[in-house]
Amino acid sequence: MSNIYEICHDSSSLSDVQISILNNSGDLLQFASDLSQREVSVFVPGKAKGTMVLVEHHTPLFQGMSGANVVTLGQIVNVYDEPVAAYVMQQGSMLMGAKEKEYGKTVPMAAYPFVDNAGGTIAVITFVGQVEPNRELLTETAFMALQVPIANNSKQLYKALSVQDGIILISGDGKIIYANELADSIMHLRGRETHLAGENIYNSRVNLSGAKRALASHEGFVEDIVHGQVIFTQRVIPLLKGGKVNRLIIIITERTEIHRKEQELMVKTSVIKEIHHRVKNNLQTIASLLRMQKRRVQSEEAKHALDESLNRILSISVVHEILSHHDEDTIDITDVAQKLLQLLLHGMVSRDSHIEPHFDGQKLILPSEAAASLALVINELITNAIVHGFEGMQDGILSVSITNQDGQGQLIIRDTGKGMDPGTVDMKKHLGLQIVTTLVEKDLQGKLEFSDVKPSGTEVRIQFPLVEKGA
Hints:
38% of the residues lie in helices and 28% in strands.
């Protein structure tokens, strides 16, 4: 996320409109650094005369960072310490120079003025680092890209680059003015034997139909290209000036192996989702058999036991149902809790009673194992509240709350029923509470606490650590 807006408001002399113009290019700075293969810094005029403020700094992702590259954003810089940037800020014209990175050691530097809609210089973009002479054109192109605000639907065009990307630059009249070695290698895989640089896409056999489309439509795009058994991804980025395409950036990545692994992952994900779906169906079949058995038994105690088993099975079924619709093996437990609250109230509360449900839940993502355990806990506590807390009562409120408290998951189930004395609860006599205690303490590594609610009712509070998947 760009630091430009906040730092400029606090420390620069720019207006709100100028800050917004500069901030619109903030998301492109990493792409510009990757494309130019240089460190990119952004300086704006400070509030005090003779000062500038460093508001952004990016280093090419595939070059790494050293201690010498560590910078402090928001620092006030004296113009005498950045003479090249200060000159460009004052004169409004591009300047090539050098910057001392270490004592007695300088590296090439290119500084460009960034202007507002009126043509006034509101910032200086510097590109610092040694590059090969034939790659100087990449720096100019990177700055050109910064002057074209990124659209919400085109952010995928400006994703970070890597050492596996082939880069091609094409002028507005279709001439290939730059192609790196990887681009030549990738095009060689597509059947081309000679170098790309110097060719014109309109009067040669070079296969860059995407470039022709972008020059004609003025729109960028991302597409996959299949050539035999090889798959490429192509990003085409038009840089406009005066309503015409001034230059094209084409980024080609050979991604056959990545594509194969993505396909394998899609197949595995589909299989896992189908397994969850079948588990859910099997659990619901078992639930149906228990309902049939319940209708045949005469003992109220046996019916009660079957009801408890039925609800436990359905609570796990809800988890598998939600997982069957997700690509990840994680689940938002709030979805499960809300469905269980509705399911249990609908199935266990008589038509003559009015138990009002209240639900308050933040999004809380858990691994499927933890979600299944917590679903059973929620089932037992809601069931306990309905069967025992509201026994003999015609109305009441049953509330469920799920929150994230500084890395701790918190579940609170509260009822306005008859209440219970927390000190006299004998876990050994209540199978449901034994299950809850075991699941909370052993599976979730959490804590369980019962308390009274005034004027009547019971509150159960559960806290457990949120462990990231794979930790």
